[in-house]
Amino acid sequence: MSQTVDRALSILPLLAEGPADLGQVADRLGVHKSTALRLLRTLHEHGLVYRQSDQRYRLGARLFSLAQEAVENLDIREIAHPHLVRLNEQCGHTVHLAVYEENEVLYIDKVESRYPVRMYSRIGKPVAITVAAVAKLCLADLPEAERRARVEKLDYPMYTSRSTPNAAAFLKELAKVREQGWATDLGGHEESINCVAAPVRGADGRVVAAMSVSAPNVVVTADELLTLLPLVRRTADAISGEYSGRTPTADPA
């Protein structure tokens, strides 16, 4: 039975490459055509493959429906939380997880710093979109036309002397973030708070969330915080792997 299941599942990656006829499927599996036909018929009955008019087989609509349902039911916060806790235990600083929804970037999880100086950020609260590191990662991943249109509609409050002053400067910053794959906020929102962030990506490579480590200058300098970037990126990669199903859960340390 396990061999039959294994063979049937082996057909799906083949058809993902494009339509194939019975002979091609049998050759790939190393079985007789009658065996391949039985497997294809079973997959067809479940909607996982479809037989075209030219007698070739392709992936069925039910497979795409199942994949979409699986993605929609994934809870990025639930998956990410243990990783955020582990990162917080390793560095001691505040850790955030944020997502882009309806033209806002919102915090959806937070693990508090072990130090007495705390941040005012709250779960469910929008971030300062023109300066926050997590916001830069989310916006940098948007298609160029959408990114430019969104950026040009924003206001640019000068929270500090290091805040992003205008759309042109923000677009330049987002291009840099998109190229390097990580982002910072070094005193752009609060003069005394620095932040470094990395993206969480889905199976298609798109950014589904962003996570960050933040700390005040009285605890660590900006340069000291930046030394945590490799750890932050490994944590984000571990969350990405688990979220997309590419890798098993692993300690990023």
TrEMBL record:
Keywords: DNA-binding, Transcription, Transcription regulation. SUPFAM superfamilies: GAF domain-like, Winged helix' DNA-binding domain. Residues 2-61 form the HTH iclR-type domain. Residues 62-245 form the IclR-ED domain. The keyword Transcription applies. InterPro entries: GAF-like_dom_sf, HTH_MetabolicPath_Reg, Tscrpt_reg_IclR_C, Tscrpt_reg_IclR_N, WH-like_DNA-bd_sf, WH_DNA-bd_sf. It comes from the Bacteria. The keyword Transcription regulation applies. This is IclR family transcriptional regulator. It comes from Streptomyces ossamyceticus.
